[in-house]
Design goal:
Chains A, B: This is Pyridoxamine 5'-phosphate oxidase family protein. Two copies of one chain form a homodimer. Chain A is built from five helices and ten strands; from the N terminus they run βαβββαββααββββα. Chain A is α+β, with helices and mostly antiparallel strands and 236 residues long. Chain A has one domain: Pnp Oxidase, Chain A. Chain A has a six-stranded antiparallel barrel. In chain A, a hairpin with a 2-residue loop joins strand 3 and strand 4 (59-63). In chain A, helix 3 (118-132) crosses helix 5. Chain A is globular, with a radius of gyration of 20 Å. The interface between A and B is large, with 93 and 95 residues. Strand 9 (184-192) of chain A pairs antiparallel with strand 9 (184-192) of chain B, so a sheet runs across the interface.
């Protein structure tokens, strides 16, 4: 198993037993989500921006961020922390103190840089569509040069990362076990609903490649499927 | 309507038309979620930590963060940015460029401080249970002094905030409208699953106050209900 290096920056400070540093665990958390939160600093002030991310190997990408102006001004990259979190359950214990949550999270550190080269930027934007919606780009018109120009794409090689996973039942104190209080886990998951076709659309059927986004499926499972296809097929 | 002040820190830099600064919109995004992401800075390095948050008026609270040591060392508070995001849908357009996501997000700025006073800390921890699970604290044993001591609670008065909401259909370019590509919105939502009772539990029925966490309900709707009860009843 390949691991990210453990440094003072990514070493878990709390609940060490939940921490993992191997690529497989970290990437599975990243890949299961569409959205990340990115922390960055401007003049000492931290910002936390939500955005859509995509991964190619140990590189993360995102686009159009309010940090773009700052990034453009600083060659060589600026330090950021990219975090993806999935809430999986509410853990209800017999004491307030032992209430908890089941979750998966990954924190990734690196230097974020604007991708200025048009060819590299085009490839990164194509990867975005290919990674989320494999097969879709074949039915779309090509991006125009103006569209590529109008989008900021930011890339970051992950230098350190850690994942934390809590995925078990209630951790009651032994002496609380007899208390007549309901205890257990209330699971939660991000689920896909019924597709809502555009009102302006002619009678266009849902393309086969979109049928995996079926009502009632878990979004994280679909996202892992599409990443696996992207990893296997690579970029067009 | 009461608004948060708009400053260079929280003024929307992009897609201005999606930005809102009023308390109602910002608080509705915060309250609909259990989890936030907190950006903070240690020695110039940004960190983005996921955690559970709760709100009382214009104060946000969270507990047990790896920033605790830093916070304890710095009286007067440290600048943080607390962001809550809900992914509501995948927006599939006829061009790669116009693909988007429906979402609700709120970014809140302020100075975070460790709550050292034991009475204030106890009240904040009681508020956590009351806000998430109204009615539950009455059936739990009181927290012990040791439990209160073992928990770091961090408080922050929101000084600036903004919310962004995208909640509409596809924004195709007019000239792409004829393309025979499926376009529309694939909605997603965080849903509650079937409660999993603790294996160690005697035949304890689900308390009436937990029945709102019913299988098949949207978590964000339940969270807004429980916050409304907390807002109406205040702290015990």
């Amino acid at each position: 198993m390949t691991h990210y290096p453990v440094t003072p920056r990514n070493r878990a400070k709390r609940v060490h037993e939940r921490a993992r540093y191997d690529h497989d665990t970290v990437h599975a958390v990243l890949d299961a989500g569409l959205m990340c939160h990115i922390a960055y600093v401007i003049d000492g002030q931290p910002y936390c921006t939500p955005t859509i991310h995509w991964r190619d190997g140990t590189r993360l990408y995102w686009h159009g961020s309010s940090a773009s102006r700052m990034l453009r001004a600083q060659k060589g990259g600026v330090p950021v922390c990219v975090t993806v979190t999935h809430l999986d359950g509410l853990v209800m214990a017999r004491s307030a103190f032992n209430h908890s949550a089941n979750y998966r999270s990954a924190m990734c550190f690196g230097l974020a840089e604007i991708i200025e080269d048009a060819a590299e930027k085009t490839r990164a934007l194509e990867a975005l569509t290919d990674r989320f919606y494999p097969g879709r780009r074949a039915e779309l018109r090509p991006m125009t040069a103006q569209e590529v120009k109008a989008t900021s794409v930011i890339g970051m090689t992950i230098t350190e990362a850690s994942a934390k996973v809590r995925a078990h039942g209630v951790g009651d104190d032994a002496e609380d076990g007899h208390l007549p209080v309901w205890a257990g886990v209330i699971p939660v998951a991000t689920m896909i609903g019924a597709a809502q076709p555009s009102a302006l659309m002619p009678e266009t059927p849902l393309a086969p490649h979109l049928q995996r986004f079926a009502e009632g499926r878990r979004l994280d499972e679909v996202m892992l499927e599409t990443q696996a296809i992207y990893d296997a097929e690579g970029r067009a």
